[in-house]
Design a protein that fits this description.
Blueprint: H1 3-10, E1 12-15, E2 23-26, H2 28-32, H3 34-48, E3 55-59, H4 62-73, E4 77-83, E5 91-97, E6 102-108, E7 117-121, E8 124-125, H5 129-140, E9 144-153, H6 159-165, E10 170-175
Parallel strand pairs: 3-4, 3-7, 7-9, 8-9, 9-10
Antiparallel strand pairs: 1-2, 4-6, 5-6
Helix pairs in contact: 1-3, 3-4
Bound molecules: guanosine-5'-monophosphate (5GP).
Amino acid sequence: IDPVSYVRSAIRSVPDWPKPGVTFRDITPVLQDPRSFRVLIDLFVYRYMRQRLDLVAGIDARGFILGSVLAYELNLGFVPIRKKGKLPYRTVAEEYSLEYGNAAVEMHTDAVRPGQRVLLIDDLIATGGTMMAASRLLQRLGANVIEAAAIIDLPYLGGSAVLRKTGLPIYTVCDFN
Ligand code: 5GP
């Protein structure tokens, strides 16, 4: 079995969560099994080891798990992109719209320096709103966002296509339809 199929088969689909009609793609089994966890992280390591990155930026909260392990393996620093109101120092925020209302992501103003080559990572791209806001935030701080990566894309929602149209390179390990 190839690495992508190995990771994909470890993802658990939970019907009707968080609400009826929605199928949640749960990555906790991928992390729980040491083999799928390693295969997953190694897919990212091999993709990015020759990219001369400066930093990995992970999105709250599952992007922290992936991003910190990947940053450590690539010998890079890690910076968190947090939900609003969690960071203690000076921050910049970027709002985005959810199905109901708004949300915002936040970073410390000194988290990246202008021109730094940053990899953005989260677990899943749905509408793309979270990735878009995170990438705008990084760009406002002067970062060069080399790619936005996730384990899962939901292509039927069109988020990854919209992100690519803005010129942001996207990499996802697998799709669910
Ligand atoms: P978007 O902003 O692209 O619509 O939603 C993506 C964000 O919502 C990500 O931060 C992701 O963690 C979370 N998310 C939405 N649906 C799912 C899902 O089915 N599984 C997982 N693991 N995360 C999801």
